[in-house]
Amino acid sequence: MTLRSTLLGTAFAVACGGAFGGAAHATPLEGWYIGLEGGAGVVEDWNFIDNATPAMASFDTGWLALGTVGYAWQNHLRVEFEAGYRYNELDTYSFVGVPDPAISGDLWEATAMANLLYDLYLTDDLALSLGAGAGGDFANLQLTNGVVSGEVDQWNLAYQGIAGVSYSIARQTSLFVNYRYLRVVSPEFDFRPVPNDILRDGDDIVKHALTIGLRYALQGPQAYVDSAPPPPPPVQPSGAPRQFIVFFGFNKYNLTSEAMRVISEAVVAAKETGSASLLITGHTDTVGSNQFNDRLSMRRSNAVKGEMVRQGIAASAITTSGRGETELLVQTADGVKEPQNRRATIDLN
Fold this sequence. Notes:
Layout lengths: L2 H18 L10 E13 L2 E5 L2 E7 L2 E11 L4 E19 L2 E2 L4 E18 L4 E19 L4 E20 L4 E12 L14 E2 L4 E13 L25 E5 L9 H17 L4 E5 L7 H21 L7 E5 L20 E6 L1
């Protein structure tokens, strides 16, 4: 099985897990996080000059382990520091296309990279990540011809491209699959496995990696402390349609026990008054992009509708809408976590 086939198959498995699994809904990653991953690594055939003779080294598929520490913003951008270890055994060592079976060896590398990534959320829990990074690659190449052995260590500039998919398996934990294309720039080894033998002026070393891992957000949504409690529902004037207000946590659309109580009151009132129609309108505060808040407001509206239907209100009698951050209950500047704006209103007509 090729590396590309493995990547596509694993990504499909993660996506299917997102479609059929029962994970709790999660908010986009924000704040500090850590990650750990491991998988398979491939080194492309490496061409170089061996004592003025064109030579090539090919390597078996090996393994790698990576650890990351990063920080994510509300706009879905994140930066991270990545440290890794990679290992591959030498498959063949050739001179002018002719393999030398006497030569064996291995290659291990330590990498230190700084990455910039963007997360595109495809569903509530499934995200596509794209990014790039740059840093250093410390390579240790060991060769032997059965008589003498030698090794060389060297740092070189490296850069990489990253693509992956992730699925939220808990509110602060994501399972992800990543593909990396890593390129080590112009390695020049001064290495003598046999007398008078020098390796230098090699082409770039190109590597491919497929990994699976876990990412954990150190600051979960529940860590936010609001400056003020939600206000009581407004007093409705006599004869006007009754309105109920359901409040939500920061970036959340799950229903709290207080929200369930308010919804139950609205259901009782709708049944007692014989309301022919109900309008549920979702709202958000001003934290996050307009596009994200539009989606979040609709999720809040639909969450309230789902509970009202469960309690006996006909779905056909309910209309839902989402206004994002366009109709604030409390006027604030952009980026303000105002709890009174995180709401859904239920109007009985």
